[in-house]
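Researcher: Structure for this, please.
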Amino acid sequence: MKTNKIKPVLFVGLISILILMAASIRSSLEHMSDYNKKTSSLITQNNLKTQYYLALQTSIYHRHISIRNLYLLKDEFDQDDEIMRFRSYATDFIKARDQLLLLNLSKGEIKGLDKLLELVKAIQPEHEKILESIKSGEPKTKILSILEKRIHLQDKIVESIEQIIHAQKIESQNIINNIKHEYRNTKNTIYLIYLASFLLVVVISYLVLRKTQKLEDRLIKANKNLEQLATKDSLTGLYNRRQFNHEIESDWLHCSRGNTPLSVIMIDVDNFKQYNDAFGHVRGDNVLRKIGMKLGKVVQRETDIVARYGGEEFVAVLPSTSQEYAAEIAYKILQSVRDLNIKHVSENEIVTVSIGLATKIPNHNTEYMSIVESADEALYQAKEMGRNQIYIKKDN
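Model: Predicted structure, token format:
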């Protein structure tokens, strides 16, 4: 009798446990599926946003370089080609903007994007002035004046893009935290249901945790990539223009307090446009990478920095460095690029660089841009004197 009574109890208990296990498994799978969908959707959204933010940044950067090229070009046909190229970058910008507007943007990203579009609209008249001045053959000094006026707008545009990327990182982190919170609640619920089948709970929890860790690792990696975009040049891996400004301003203040000299070396690849026209942008980009690697090997002190200043221009900042030592570094850079022995358009030519060097002892009455301008003037002199050489700017 007891056996017969126990069997139904065991049967009912077994059925109850199986029902609990089935309900738990179903609940777990539903939560895992929902979690995976949310996380996968976030990763997809992040990747698309990163792609389109890069497209925005690249089109703006290329328009900036194109304007500089127009300033340097003298041939009308070359100018017309460059103007067409300049306007095509605007098309790329609009396409990337339209794609971004189709995505699920946070309030911070929408605000940043609106600010970016306002800045782009604000700088457009300056671009048109420059184009009109160039086409009408107005003096270089006037064109240069307009170029200088738009620099602060250009910097604001770059800063705006970086703010959007920062807003995306914050939004991603908030979503991650919400998903983690949902996951913790789900796990606690599952533990209560799984009292009768503890081992199964452990297995499922392990699988969920392992999946969670993989997804979190992917999100962390995506966030690191976003952070690197804000400070590093995507082509060469060197510091970008914005980070360069931050670093040199800090070095300027440091040298000012210690009354020690600061040296700046500006490097420009000679006749790089002709190289690109002859061999294509892929090989041109490869040349810039190789030169960037050489610069990193020559400028080795922890206190020194190397950055891609823009286009085919690089810059090195050497704090607490005399002009004599900086000149040695500049010569090593000049020679190391020659040693690459990269063939140029002509069979008898190789890729070379022109270098401008300036050294100053900073003080509180001057800004760090004064030494950048001096180095840029020295670079101009080096090119005027025939390229493939160093010009040292004497500090009055």
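Researcher: Any notable elements?
Model: The chain has a mean pLDDT of 81. The domain at 8-231 is CATH 1.20.120.1730 (Four Helix Bundle (Hemerythrin (Met), subunit A)).
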